[in-house]
Amino acid sequence: MSLNFMKYALVSIFFCFLLNLFFIYFVQKLNIENTYLNNTWCPNLNNSFAQSTLERLKTDKCKKKVFDFVCQQKVPSILLNTCQHFDAKLKGTYLGCYKDSKNKRVLSSFDTIISISNTPNKCINTCLRGGYMYSGVEFIKECFCGEESNLNDSSLIKLPDSYCQKYKCPSPNENLYCGGYEAIAIYATGMKQHKRLYPVYVENNYEINKEVKILFLLQLNGRNDRQVKRMLKSVYRPNHYYIVHVDKRQKYMFNEMKKLEKILPNFKVSDERWSTIWGGASLLTMYLKLVESQMDKDWDFVINMSESDFLVIPLDELEVQLIANKGISFLSSHGSNSGKFIKKQGFYYKFMECEERMWRIEERNNFPENMYIDGGSDWIVIHRDFIKYSLSNETLPRDLRNMFQSVLLPLESFFHTLGYNSQFCNKIKARNLRLTYWKRTQGCRCAKLKKTVDWCGCSPLVFRNNDISFIHYNTVKQKATYFARKFDDFVDITAIHFAELQALKNKKNRNKIILVNDESYNHSWVNLYSLESDGDNELIYNWAKILMELKNDCFLINVTNIYTFKSSPSSKVYFVINLNAKCSGTPTNIELLVDYVEEKKLTENFIINDFLLLDVKIGFNLDLKEEIFRDSTNLFTKTGTVYILISWKQQNENIASSERKTSPPIYLEWYDGNEILVAAQNVSAYDSIFSNQYSFLELDTISNIKYGTWKVVFKNLSKNMTGAIINFPLFDVSDFNNMHFLTEKFYKVIDNCLGNNCMNFSWSTAFPNPKSDIKKGYDKKMEWLV
Question: Which family does the UniProt entry place this protein in (predicted)?
Fold first, then answer.
């Protein structure tokens, strides 16, 4: 009896122990959640942006970071502005009360409503942030900003001060006056009239017996290592320095750059890496850390470049420009209304980077006094003296480095703001020696940024053959633009050809290093998969095994690489698959040239709302800006996202439209492998410079998914007409029969080669490609990377 009692007692104690553990864990978790979601001691954490962020974040580490950013980050109350264009003694000087009108504002440069705690001083600092000379308060909450030209207007009518003392400022500042009705009280912000300096082309004077050393900071992303190598060739010299950052997520590019590091002594690849997402705070961190790591070198200027940049004026002419501008930094500003720029840039919100995303966590209601904000491009040319100051522990750079941890797109404005608030404000020229190809209606798409940031933004487009006039030598020389961006040989290699020929125009041996008649000159290869970087992939292995067996009696060991391949800008996209195999017992390298076989039907003369359907395509990874598929292998599985690209042509282009669209509404039906309707979509009319339209389906949202041949049907519901049908494969990796059937149906091996013989096949990745090959290093005789 006592033994049984002891057993029950021990079981009860153990059960109570487990119950207590569970209770402690549950209470602790509840306390953590309450700390973030229902706290009382840090009321700012209860704002809607922080709450939304906390609900969406996945990790406790990032939730803790929200707490730190909102509750503990300090902002200095005043900025130490030492620029000669700002006079703190002038700031706040009352200039009088003036008659104002909605039809013709006295201060017309910028206006805003300051609903909470508006005061003359708050309006002064708001206008100062935009670089305006004057500010004015009116009708309680209104704040206006203007320039010297506004007050020089002879039609201005000055009023007695009592007219501007009609309304008291909003609570808690009722002891101050905030203007009257159509009566504006005007104050000086402390900014003085000044003209910005702009760079001009400096003629190449070969009598200049000076040398300039450049630190090129290459900020690389993606997998197009061949284009990076081609770009590097145009800017490489043994006397310059090259520090390389590869996005943390891009292992393939990192591995390829590490190979170059072994043969180029002045080419250093950083082992410390960040996920350089669009607008991310880590962009500024990365830039400062990498440049700081190179301060022991004797360079004079640092120039950052991406994989999409290219020289359009020879490097020796760029060197002359820098020699003539010793001590000068080149920063391109926004070129628009400063007040609007600050709003559009998101400065009135705090952002936090975590989980490879920028989260909007609260409004930024407080800025340091005396702060002027400027910004524009994050592609910059900075002199060594300014970099040393930026990295120093002096008050201004230290305060701005801390503040810019919570700024969206910090690299676009940190150096601008630091420079124009410091003694370096007279050592800045307001262009960055670079041409960026903007088409904002196409490049400003919020959809492509939703997964990355709580904001909208813009990206430049790629230069194509039709755009080459923008980078003609006389055109770029006129504005002193030595670089241009963006270039992409997968989109259009001809623009790179043009830029390269122009960048090397001063080379006496140009015809020996640019082989325009070489068979590979118009070819482009971009890596999609690498065993070394991406690891084993069962789907790719089984797919390649079936393809190999269609052409060779060999045993597949592994798939080492897959590339997209284009033989010319207008050619079809193929795939080159690199394999390790055993053929007749002998290890052999095999390459396959593979074509994806489209299965689609288009109805002739299918028209909706005056738009003629031209084509429909399907694929992975649709680039919403360039409207091309970055991956057309179409190896879809149940976790993938299928994109549809629809091309149209407007029949009567003279038809007026209040809202310009380049495609009509269309209805899509998605059918699974059993021909069961699984999704229906009404696709809205769309505006595209390429006259395309897109839709997508996330396959992991489909329950009880059926593999096999899927199809999408394109319909005009109002006329009950079908315009197109396109099929695509959905693979089941565990079902070999499914794999075999779909591979044979949708893919065709065009050609193949074995071992060293692949060097004779122009599509092969082993085929010599002199425009981008860097095998040995720098050839002193040719003065070129080979």
Answer: Belongs to the glycosyltransferase 14 family. XylT subfamily.
